[in-house]
From TrEMBL:
Family assignment from sequence similarity: Belongs to the myoviridae tail sheath protein family.
Superkingdom in the source lineage: Bacteria
Residue span(s) of domain Tail sheath protein subtilisin-like: 567-737
Matches recorded under InterPro entries: Phage_sheath_subtilisin (IPR035089), Tail_sheath_C (IPR020287), Tail_sheath_structural (IPR052042)
Domain Tail sheath protein C-terminal: 738-844
Protein name, per record: Phage tail sheath subtilisin-like domain-containing protein
Amino acid sequence: MSYQSPGVYIEEVPSGPQPIAAASTSVVAAIGSLCKGPVGVPTRVTGWADFVRTFGTAHARGFTPEALYGFFENGGTAAWVVRADPSVAATWKIYDSATTATLSFEATATSPGAWANGVTLGVSPDLTGGAGAMAQAVVSGPVSVPSGTGSIPVYSSGGFLAGDTVTLMKGTGTSVNATVNTVAANSLNVTADASIGLAEGDVVAARTAAAPTTILLASGSGLKPGDLLAIQSADGSRVTGVIAAVVKQGPRTAVTLGAPLGSAVVGAGLARRIARFRGTIAGGAATFTLGQITWEVDPALAPVNSESQMAHARATVSSGAVAAFGGAHFAMPGGQNAPAGTVLVDAQVRVAVYTEAIDLAADTVADVLARFDFLPVGTAIRLTDGTNTTTVTRTGEATAATSGAPLPQIFTSASFLLPANASKGVVVRCAVPPRVGEFVDFDATTRLRITGVTKANGTVYVLTFAETTDLSAIATSRFPLVAFSPTTFFPVRFNLTVTDGGALAESHTGLALDPSHPRYFARDGVVNGVSAYVTVAPRAAGAAAIGETTTPAYALSAQAGVDVAPANADFKKALTKLEEQQEPSQVICPDSVTLEDPLLQADLVGAVVDHCEAFRRFAVVDAPDFDETALVTWRNQTVASTYAAVYAPHLKMVAIDPDATERFRTVPPSGFVAGVFARTDRERGVAKAPANEQVGGIVGLSRTFTPRHQDLLNPAAVNLLRAFPGRGIRIWGARTTTDDAAWRYVNVRRLFNFVERSVENATQWVVFEPNTASTWIRIKVSLEGFLDQLWRAGALAGGKPEEAYRVSVGLGETMTAADINLGLVITEVALAPAKPAEFVIFRFSHKRQSE
């Protein structure tokens, strides 16, 4: 720091040697065959539930899940897991709504294996994300609009601006185009292309230019660039376009499309009213007819293929796929089979003259009138008992005139006839409530506007009209319901649902196909990276342009997942990936015992031990489930290292595989032993031999070894697990697989591993420091401070520090001038590890009383 002016200066300087932090010794690394999860990717898990979420539960092909269960059950807190099996992932193909099987995109299980074979994907339209409408106004009174300039009274002119092009629409179906000159609260001054007479209830609707690219919406929300915008007219027909931009322009929203539409868009239209009818189908075929639907409404009110009632009709089945009506039946997209269950049909609505099958015990006209007390005056009812017919006409509140045969005692049906004066009311049935202002087409020349609606009961309504038209001569009994309906604008998005074992597991909503959309289905964080079940791939570069016929409509399984047992090469690849992680201090490979070829098993065990020797880790090796003689032979032929220990026999535990047919399963011990290592390290320290410690999570041993058996196995460095009365099952051995007495014990090897890794991690600061006495002193003081803590904790032998450890560094002590010129800093550390009391001897003798 440069000092230029008087004052007080605060500086921070090093205060002494760098402390050495203890390295972790309790984290295990496990490689093996698993149900699911990433292959060849070291993944850290911190508990059994965490492991199951990532890798699934136990299975019959290997023992790694049970090993991890035993690790956490016995005190382990963290593990690195590497899945080795080269299994095949399940895939699904998602097709669009075209009648041919046009592929939209593919989905793949998040990890390979048969675990996903019970998973199904569903695609359904999501029409809840936004909506819009163009301006429209309802005429409030009769007016004659001349060809040229005129004013139109309306209930509200909201949404219109001067200069707008509009269409003036009559209830009879005729229309004229015009331009808005001025706008008042309850009137529009327009210049019309031709004269037209408008009545109350007629409509003025905004109109776009021909082949528009921009549409001005009087109201709109939730629309985003990249959305596929559906524009649905009053008759149910649709056109679509991809939104390029959405800009707020004062009270209105300007939506710009990526390409012009084929024709002008009008904000409203006069067409047969569309409603939704609910029913069920048996399913199982690619097509289904109206007759195959069991309706929840009276069949007399359900859609039929007549009078164009099914024009632009659509059916949504229980899977979410939308089937279009083709003139005789609904055709599922791509030829897929319709699933059984609910079907929702969007079709045109008809009203029907009320006819009812009844059982009415009455013999007076008053009884008939009381039964149908909602009848308007002038309504005629034709009653029949199947043979004789009587007509009863209401002439007053409680009076009627009869004609025909005498009134029968039992009526089998009643029909309400069309009246001679429509203004007095018509009794009809309708699947949905008719609305004031809608029209009924009684015949080709008689279209009447509804002025009043009274619900009688159920689906029975009394409709009144302003006209006194005589309807009695009309022979038919079912009539289209016609309405002015707004043109609707909505984004065509889709939902992707994941079902596992028949239960809904995930739902990804509001997805779009265009990459510019914020909910683009293949963007990271939308489905990919969020779903625990699937990842989705973008659409192919040569896919068809996005439109209504490329909206995903259904998903089919394309390839089942396949479990493939790992070979030695796969295990070795997993070991190579494990080199990337520094934290693990132990390595287990419980699936080594599944290899039937002893040479392959020895090769795998050798690879694990070589890895541990190279990366200063400790291998907990599972011995095969052999008797004592075969165990000695196997150990001598398979493994010899100071970085490994062998454990036997196998353990019995309650089966955790949900598909297991047996209650108990025999498993190798390495995971349970590694958990005991972790528990001992935490409670006593790494210097404590992990033996004479109880093993939890098991119910027994596959074999019972006696002290006589252990007399053979212990010198051969096979550590046994044994059951002791009143003390449970305990690890009863702590030897490494070496004949070197200096490295005989597990805790000695692990103590040195611990010290070496701690020093390596904590002395990185030395690199490129000046190779001088001051640096050497800092190194020595750091190491001595760390080793002194170990000695005081009982990890090192000796009655005083100089007996427990020695640290040497310096010129003439551990280095020559040539070493320094080569950039070497050589530090020598000697430790006196505490060794376990393996053989505890008490010598007894007689004591003389005189002694």
